[in-house]
From TrEMBL:
A Pfam family per the record: GATase
Keywords from the named record: Ligase
Enzyme Commission code: 6.3.5.2
Superkingdom of this protein's organism: Bacteria
PROSITE patterns registered for this protein in UniProt: GATASE_TYPE_1
SUPFAM superfamilies xrefs: Class I glutamine amidotransferase-like
Protein name per the record: GMP synthase (Glutamine-hydrolyzing)
Gene Ontology terms, MF aspect: GMP synthase (glutamine-hydrolyzing) activity
Enzyme class: ligase
Domain Glutamine amidotransferase residue range list: 57-189
Amino acid sequence: MLFDDRTFYRRNTDKPVLIILHQEHSSPGRVGHLLLEKGLSLDIRRPVLGDPLPATLEQHAGAVVFGGPMSANDDEDYVRREIDWLAVPLSENKPFLGICLGAQMLVRHLGGVVGPHHEGMTEIGWYPLEATEKGRALMEWPSMVYQFHREGFDLPAGAELLASGSTYPNQAFRYGENAWGIQFHGELTRVMMHRWVVHGAHRFDLPGAQMGRAHLEGRMDHDAPLRAWMDRFLTHIFQRQGEKVTA
């Protein structure tokens, strides 16, 4: 199933998960597929195109904010509004997941710093991941993950670090009971990765970046564990002991 329209995808009568995307043709990809497989529904919105964000998540099971080419430090109105809007899931203690830009927006909302590596290094391709003690207590993590970013973040006050990397040390964290952020991408389907490799080829000469061939070859070796982890992670966020988190 493709996710190119701003619409609802329903598999049952439960409250949908709010999906926030940042480009006209962006897709929730594997995350969308996995949520649908779990019996949840999707409410896809693109604030950059003028879609409103709800004043409350009372009618939603939670929210996922995805990545994008912009920076959480940009001075665009929609970026500032989206960062401010994160007060909604936090104050209502709703399940929330930020992926890459979404995680960086959460960091900014919590008063943390988002910025480039001090030596200009990037992570574009496949890179090792190491779970912390708290992360390992939560679940098994993949040893390699897919990255596509030039900025990272510090750990917000009160957050728990769940996974780390050598170049960008803060890779996954939890804040409070239900807010989660990951720097890496577990949502890419094969088609999405091919598209990213084509449209992002101009970035492969940046410090630390891998050539496109390594992205596609790495997928054959590393994607299955990443997909299995993404499935478990979404279950942990949006389902508890087999019960859907929709209240």
